[in-house]
C-alpha cells in the first residue's frame, strides 16, 4: 500500500457524530438580515417576519396554501427528500434530476418504506411531468446522508454511506453520462473509510469523504470501476468540501475541535482553506496544507462553501446549519442559541479570506429567535427549526442569483449581483401540518435542507423538502432574468 502512495495515519480519534457539531465565535457586531423580497403578481406572502410560519397560520388554515413570492411550482414529485438535488443532461440529450429521498437512515425507515428508499432518478425533459425512471438502492445510495455529488465533466454520480455516527464509508460510483435515466453502477467499495459529507474535484479524478468524526479521505476515481484511497488524514472534523476551479484549493467547512477549556464541545468553527495540489498530483505521503482559518461572530455549524467568481474576484457562499446547540451554552438555552445562517466570503488571497456580507432572514436574529416563534411547528426541534442548510449558484462564473434551503423557512432566493449588498428576491415554502402523515416520524412545518439545482433555460430551480418531496419552482415577475 505504501507503493501506491497511501498515507494512513489511522490512530483515528472518532467522536460521536451527534457531538461533531459546533461552538460559537466570539466578538464583533451582530450580522443583519437582508432586505425583504418585493413580491409581485401571484404572491402568497408570509404573514409574519421574514422567514417565519407562525403557529397562528396553522390554527387558521392559512398554512395549507403555502407561501410564495415571485415563484410558483411547475411540478411536484414524491413525498420525501434529503440533502441534494442534481441536474444533468447526458450524451443522448436527456435531462435528469437526482435526489436522495431520506434525511437520516434508519430514523426515517418506516416512512420511506411507503414513499421509497434510495436515490430517485427523474426524467425531466418535460418539467411539468417528472417521470421516475429508476431508484438507486446500492448501499451508499440508501443512506448517502450529505455526500451525494455529481461530476458533470465525467458524468459520474457518487456518494458514501453515511451517518449513524458513522456508517462504514462505502463509496458507490455510477455512470450517468451514457443514460442518465438509468444510471449504471460502476463500483461499490469500502474506500471512504467513514461517511457523512464529501467533495468532488472539478476534474472528476478525486472523490473526498469527510466523516465529521475525525477523518478526511482522498479517493482516486480516475478508474471509477476501481476506486483507490490515496490519503487518509485523522484528527480533522470537516463537513462539506468544495474546490477552486483548478482543484488545488479546498474550501472546507470546519465544524471544530473540542475545547474543554472554554466549555465548548467543538471549539472554533468556520472555514479552512487548504492547498491539496500535492494530493491531486499523487505525491506519496502528501496531506493537505492549511493556508488559513476563518471564523465569524455567531457561527453555528458550517455546512459547505460554494465557490464562484464575480467581477474578477473569487468568493465562496458559505452556509451554517442549525443553531449553536452543542456548546454548553447552546445546550442550556437552545431557544436562544445563535443561528449562523450564511455569508459571502472573499477568497482572492487564500491566506487571508474575509467576510464580505451576510445572508440572513429576520427570523434568524437573536432578538427574535428565542421568542414565541421558537414554538412554531418544527421550530423547536434541534435538527430543524429556523436555520440554514445548503446554498448553490447556477454557475461558478458571474452568478447573479443564489438559492438556499433554509429548513422551516423553505427555499429562499437572493440577488447576489452586488456581493456586498445581497437582497432576497423570491421564496417558496410549503409547510406540512403536524400529523399529516400517518407514519413515524411525524412531520411539522417545512424541512427544506437540499442544495438546489438550476434549470437556467426555463428560469427554474429544483429542490426537495424532506416533509413533502421534490419541487420544480419557476421564478416569476422578472426574477428569472437573474439566471441569464
Automatic annotation (TrEMBL):
Domain of life, per lineage: Bacteria
Basic and acidic residues compositional bias, start-end: 38-48
Span of the signal peptide: 1-25
The name this protein goes by in its record: Uncharacterized protein
InterPro entries xref list: Haem_d1_sf (IPR011048), WD40/YVTN_repeat-like_dom_sf (IPR015943)
Record has Signal as a keyword: yes
Sorted UniProt keywords: Signal
Region (Disordered): 25-48
Presence of the UniProt keyword Signal in the record: yes
Amino acid at each position: 500500500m505504501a507503493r501506491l502512495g497511501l498515507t494512513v495515519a489511522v490512530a483515528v480519534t472518532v467522536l460521536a457524530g451527534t457531538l461533531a457539531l459546533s461552538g460559537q465565535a466570539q466578538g464583533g457586531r451582530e450580522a443583519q438580515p437582508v432586505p425583504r423580497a418585493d413580491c409581485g403578481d401571484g404572491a402568497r406572502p408570509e404573514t409574519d417576519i421574514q422567514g417565519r410560519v407562525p403557529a397562528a397560520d396553522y390554527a387558521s388554515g392559512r398554512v395549507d396554501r403555502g407561501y410564495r413570492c415571485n415563484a410558483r411550482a411547475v411540478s411536484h414529485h414524491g413525498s420525501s427528500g434529503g440533502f441534494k438535488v442534481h441536474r444533468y443532461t447526458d450524451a443522448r440529450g436527456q435531462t435528469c434530476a437526482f435526489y436522495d429521498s431520506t434525511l437520516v437512515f434508519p430514523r426515517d425507515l418506516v416512512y420511506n418504506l411507503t414513499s421509497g428508499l434510495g436515490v430517485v432518478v427523474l426524467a425531466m425533459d418535460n418539467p411539468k411531468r417528472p417521470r421516475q425512471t429508476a431508484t438507486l438502492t446500492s448501499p451508499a445510495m440508501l443512506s448517502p446522508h450529505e455526500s451525494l455529488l455529481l461530476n458533470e465533466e465525467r458524468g459520474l454520480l457518487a456518494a458514501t454511506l453515511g451517518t449513524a455516527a458513522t456508517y462504514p464509508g462505502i463509496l458507490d460510483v455510477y455512470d450517468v453520462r451514457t443514460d442518465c435515466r438509468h444510471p449504471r453502477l460502476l463500483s461499490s467499495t469500502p474506500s471512504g473509510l467513514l461517511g457523512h459529507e464529501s467533495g468532488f474535484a472539478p476534474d472528476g479524478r478525486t472523490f473526498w469523504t469527510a466523516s465529521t468524526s475525525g477523518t478526511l479521505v482522498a479517493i482516486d476515481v480516475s478508474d471509477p470501476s476501481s476506486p483507490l484511497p490515496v490519503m487518509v488524514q485523522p484528527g480533522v472534523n470537516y463537513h462539506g468540501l468544495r474546490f477552486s476551479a483548478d482543484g488545488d484549493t479546498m474550501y472546507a467547512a470546519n465544524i471544530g475541535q473540542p475545547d474543554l477549556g472554554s466549555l465548548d464541545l467543538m471549539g472554533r468553527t468556520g472555514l479552512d482553506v487548504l492547498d491539496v495540489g500535492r494530493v491531486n498530483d499523487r505525491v506519496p505521503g502528501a496531506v493537505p496544507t492549511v493556508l488559513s482559518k476563518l471564523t465569524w461572530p455567531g457561527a453555528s455549524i458550517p455546512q459547505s462553501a460554494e465557490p464562484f467568481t464575480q467581477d474578477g474576484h473569487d468568493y465562496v457562499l458559505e452556509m451554517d446549519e442549525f443553531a449553536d446547540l452543542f456548546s454548553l451554552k447552546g445546550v442550556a438555552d437552545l431557544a436562544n442559541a445563535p443561528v449562523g445562517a450564511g455569508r459571502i466570503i472573499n477568497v482572492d488571497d487564500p491566506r487571508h479570506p474575509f467576510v464580505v456580507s451576510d445572508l440572513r432572514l429576520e427570523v434568524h436574529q437573536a432578538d427574535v429567535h428565542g421568542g414565541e416563534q421558537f414554538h412554531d411547528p418544527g421550530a423547536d426541534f434541534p435538527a430543524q427549526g429556523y436555520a440554514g442548510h445548503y446554498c448553490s449558484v447556477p454557475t461558478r462564473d458571474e452568478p447573479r442569483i443564489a438559492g438556499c434551503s433554509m429548513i422551516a423557512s423553505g427555499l429562499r432566493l437572493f440577488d447576489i449581483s452586488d456581493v456586498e449588498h445581497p437582497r432576497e428576491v423570491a421564496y417558496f415554502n410549503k409547510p406540512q401540518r403536524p400529523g399529516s402523515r400517518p407514519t413515524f416520524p411525524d412531520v411539522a412545518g417545512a424541512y427544506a435542507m437540499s442544495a438546489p439545482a438550476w434549470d437556467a433555460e426555463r428560469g427554474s430551480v429544483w429542490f426537495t423538502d424532506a416533509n413533502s418531496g421534490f419541487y420544480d419552482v419557476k421564478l416569476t415577475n422578472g426574477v428569472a432574468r437573474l439566471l441569464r
